[in-house]
Amino acid sequence: MVMQQTKSPARPSLNRSLEEQRVVIIGGTSGFGMATAKAASAEGASVIVASSKKTNVDRALAELPAGAEGHVLDITQESAVRISFRPLANLIILQ
Questions:
Q1: Distance from first CA to last CA of the chain, Å, rounded?
Q2: pLDDT at 60 (0 to 100)
């Protein structure tokens, strides 16, 4: 049996610059979230991290570049989430 290599269909490029973009990372104060926040900052994004604990937010802001924002947010409280995100109307949401 001879296998022939076929070209895969063209995929749209996902290479988007984060320069001048705002990135919100819930759980962005530790682990993968913090690594994502640091990487987004390095790519020029304005980063906003959120955690349910103020101490985590403060620690994260000490590690992130100047200009990063941090918010204490309990995501189990829908009204608090709505209020927190109201000023951030133009977000691209990745799930």
A1: 42
A2: 96
- Domains annotated for the chain, with CATH where assigned, are 22-85 (3.40.50.720)
pTM: 0.72
Greatest Cα-to-Cα distance within the chain, rounded to the nearest angstrom: 63
For residue 24, report the phi and psi dihedrals to the nearest 5 degrees.
Answer: -105, 130
DSSP track, 44-58: T-EEEEEES-HHHHH
pLDDT band at 4 (very low <50, low <70, confident <90, very high): low
Reference 68, options 31, 23, 35, 33; nearest CA is 23
**What pLDDT, in 10s, does the model give residues 24-50?**
898 899 999 999 999 999 999 999 999
